Amino acid sequence: MSKKLTRSETAELIKGMEGKILITTHKNPDGDAIGSSLGWYHFLKKLGKEVKIFYRDRIPYFFDFLPGARDVESGTEIKGKFDWVIITDVSDPKRTGFEEIPAEKSLVIDHHITAEPFTDYYIVEPDISSTCELSYEIMKIAEPGLIDTLVALPLYTGIVTDTGSFSYSNTSPRTHYIAAELMEKGVEPYLVYSSIFERNRINKFKLLELVLKTLEFALNGKVAHITLFRCFLVETGAYPEEAEGFINYPRSIEGVEVAVFFKELEEEGKWKISLRSKGRVDVAKVAKRLGGGGHKMAAGYEAEGELEEIKRELFKELEIALEESYYREISL
Ligand code: 5GP
Ligand code: MN
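^ inputs. structure came back:
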């Protein structure tokens, strides 16, 4: 049985953790995954705990400025034995990328609507912008004096990336208050911005050029989709993580309700599908029906098979979702 915790119960649980603690997050980690896990890594060390941080995949180079980034190890298998594992920003055990996590007890800290409990303890708040924002709230209850620049910088970074620099609808007044408090702990916004967004390699733009050429529309222009074939990476020398943010181009088109990004994965016949909505369609619901999850405005899933078949299946679901949103609106 999995036990749901409040913020203060989570704070107490973490303060009382004994023995070796492992921190991990989801595969292909994004800013919120990295920020929350590194934030907790520093915080727990300050609490005097023995901590190790391990991911399925390595950290993208544009997050290498974060304190502790070099302490993160990665690989397909976690060696050793742990008393606890803290898993951040993960709604589904498949998302960790590990078959097995060698820990006695487990805690999830997350903000996904579709999260289904799979650990001994969990705190999931889907209305909060990011796992970093939630982590800050818990740390403030646990031991506010320990939140220094080392803790604040990763947390601020995750908030920036998960809110699209405070622009997505998950940004609340509280998000801004917290960002201000993190700045008071020594975070410099321009350092974060320039480290993530102003160190682009030319390879990224070559990749963008190829990906944008695949732009197509479906369902009367309500859906815009782009595709990244593996051969594009070979041709341009770009890293897969350099395609982060490309989906904002199809979403930015007038009249488009849902943007889709099909990414061919390394394993033969496997695809990663990212979905973004402008608000009318709940893409978390669509992704969940197809085996994934996420948030109302940003979600994803993995699929195996022919791209044409994957598209057909998705567009069928999107057609239903768009129709539902239409009837919802006219009945208002
Ligand atoms: P992205 O498209 O940036 O990879 O992911 C957008 C959102 O969808 C993220 O918040 C992420 O948690 C969720 N998401 C993406 N892929 C998957 C998936 O395969 N499974 C689940 N459960 N959620 C996903
Ligand atoms: Mn997140």
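The pocket of guanosine-5'-monophosphate (ligand 1) is lined by residues 91-92, 95, 112, 114, 274, 292-295, 298-302 (CB under 6 Å). The radius of gyration is 20 Å.
thumbs up if we can close this ticket
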